[in-house]
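Input.
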Amino acid sequence: MAKIAVIVPAAGAGKRFGSRTNKIFERLDGQPLFLRTLEAFTSRDDVCQVLLAVSPADKEDINDRFGANLVFMGVKTVEGGATRSESVRNALAQVSPEAELVAVHDAVRPCISPLWIDAVFKKAAQTGAAILAYPVHGTVKKVGPGDVIRQTVPREELWEAQTPQVFRRDILLAAYRSGQSATDDAALVEAAGHPVSVVLGDPRNVKITTPRDLAFAAAVIRTLPKPSAPRQFHPFQDEMQ
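Output.
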């Protein structure tokens, strides 16, 4: 079993959400978004480290309000940067040498099933780089000035990237040495010349960007697939069958 370090960038301002505070503090099913997200990884046997990259403006608040939770969960906070790429780069510098793979998962993507995590971890261990993604089903329009359609984009090969995005540690480190920024880690790995595999995700694996996304997450959080429970042996019942 490959050992995996998980980086959770949580330093974004979340301006599109419209709240006065970082959207990572918004509640989903009674919990802050970022804690619910972290829980998906901290109880896994294959995860050896979880790093939460937080904004310097939020660090004191997080430590005061949730420090005990993070200690109990074994989560280490690191200082994030002005961009997602800077936050991941800062966290990468503190990844344990024990980790063979590094996964990056959005702090505000809490509706993640352990089955989807299993699948993308397994694929990354095989290929060196894999992400969850979902095929685009709607008709996609490229729109120009004046809100006029310029092109209808063929959707057959279009997928929407999700997270976790998982890479062999040396591959991700090499990609970040370029000094470039990107909206996701796969783009940097692609630019470095390493192929990235896609693992089928699910539309429920939503990134919380607007209040509407939060309402959707609240509606689907209890519908996520779970691993089948191992069958327990009941002597009397089994003898009767």
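The chain has a mean pLDDT of 91.
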